[in-house]
Amino acid sequence: MKYLSEYRNPEMVERYIEEIGKIATKNWTIMEVCGGQTHSLVKNGLLNLLPEKVQMVHGPGCPVCVTPINLIDKAVYLAEEKGVILCSFGDMLRVPGAKKSLLEAKASGADVRILYSPLEAVKLAKENPQKEVVFFAVGFETTAPANALSVIHAQREGLKNYSILTSHVLVPPAMEAVINDETAVIQGFLAAGHVCTIVGISEYYPIAEKYNIPIVVTGFEPVDLLQGIYMTVKQLEEGRNDLENQYSRVVKPEGNPEAIKVIEKVFQVCDREWRGIGTIPNSGYELRPEFAEFDANIKFSINIEKVEENKECIAGLVLKGVKKPHQCPQFGKKCTPLNPLGAPMVSSEGACAAYYHFSQISDSE
Amino acid sequence: MCLAIPGKITSIESRYDGLVRMAKVLFGGITKEASLEMVPQAQIGDYVLIHVGVAISLIDEAEAKKTFEYLEGIGELEELMPIN
Ligand code: SF4
């Protein structure tokens, strides 16, 4: 367990923990949707400080974790069989596909590269005109403007050798899917601050109203998270189901209009398959037909067999908040960050990896 | 990869016939390039939140410093480091 003095603002952390304890009269289960928040809650030891009445469950908000196995296999295929330069964010490379991960493809000679930004992939395409460059574009709303911009920049450069393999997911439909799941136990949500920085908060009003559930848009530092939890518990205790914004110093209600413009220019909403959860209607972005020449799915005929996910991995239950990572029989045994069975053990935003790295829970329970 | 990291704009150059502004952004001791297309009002000296090479929001200096120190303190700045 962390010592309070280790926090940047120990008095505030202590005060919020105390206040949450004071106002919580019943048991409440709250889901933080964003994997970055999961990571922060676990890494900062906040789960151990919260009163027992307030249970946090961890949501599906890790784009790496919910990218379907089939898309990983497509990326591996493009790198190995089509000889493309396949690039993506670091976390994507270790996610296991049916046969191998991108990192394993790289080890056996494929040109797979880790990039910090999709804009670097455009530069790479410009520098390597004789090669095809594919960016594996994963992400939630936060990452959509960057991936969209890469396509716009490539178009401006007149590049014919750049395309993206999209696995873009959206938060609000995932929240609805989690609420509608018959096994769900969630009574309140912390919504993801950086996602709302881009798209604003208006999409969450109808969810709060339709499902009678409080939603608090929250940042990711310890004091933000505790304040968000406090605001949610207060609403629950008072019987309110409002949308509130804890992170208003960064999140404007209307989001970032320029970013929304770019997203809408390049992407359109589509159904998406979520690893471990299944297909959720209208839960992702795909390239608009006008940008088809930048769509790796269209550009390359990719014919690979769809395979089943590893049955031993209960990622679907973990991503819906039904099970905690350490309740998975494989956790820390067959499944570790170095040898992950499922994606939540790979990404630093994945709940299984967060528990494995930072929490003693697996030993003590 | 989902992090947005605050940094300070140290220079701005325009590309594509002035259509795109790209900035050098300083994070502690590390400089990275970022697009300013989502923050048209940003100027040299401003603080911005950068996510995978794109500035997504202007923030004030105090907030930027506080968040940067937090991220640095808990070792979350790996993605800024040179890769490979
Ligand atoms: S611990 Fe491993 S096997 Fe179990 S749910 Fe998490 S990723 Fe899947």
Which labels suit this protein?
heterodimer, A: 365 residues, alpha/beta, Rossmann fold, six-stranded mixed β-sheet, five-stranded parallel β-sheet, 17 helices, 40% helix, globular, disordered C terminus, B: 84 residues, alpha+beta, SH3 type barrels, five-stranded antiparallel β-sheet, 1 helix, 15% helix, binds iron/sulfur cluster
Could you please describe the fold and organization of this structure?
- The complex is a heterodimer of chains A (365) and B (84).
- With 365 residues, chain A is of the alpha/beta class.
- Chain A has a domain at 69-170 and 255-299: Rossmann fold.
- Chain A has helices at residues 10-23, 35-43, 46-49, 63-66, 69-81, 102-107, 118-127, 144-157, 171-180, 193-199, 204-210, 222-238, 257-266, 296-299, 315-319, 351-358, 361-364, and strands at 28-34, 54-61, 85-88, 112-114, 133-139, 162-169, 188-192, 215-218, 243-245, 267-274, 278-287.
- In chain A, strand 5, helix 8 (144-157) and strand 6 (162-169) form a beta-alpha-beta unit.
- In chain A, helix 8 packs across helix 13 (257-266).
- The radius of gyration of chain A is 21 Å and the shape is globular.
- Chain B has a single domain, classed as Roll (SH3 type barrels), CATH 2.30.30.
- Helix content of chain B is 15%, strand content 43%.
- Chain B has one helix spanning 61-73; strands spanning 5-15, 20-27, 30-35, 47-51, 54-59.
- Chain B has a five-stranded antiparallel beta sheet with strand order 3-2-1-4-5.
- In chain B, a hairpin with a 2-residue loop joins strand 4 (47-51) and strand 5 (54-59).
- Chain B is globular and about 40 Å long.
- Iron/sulfur cluster binds next to helix 15 of chain A.
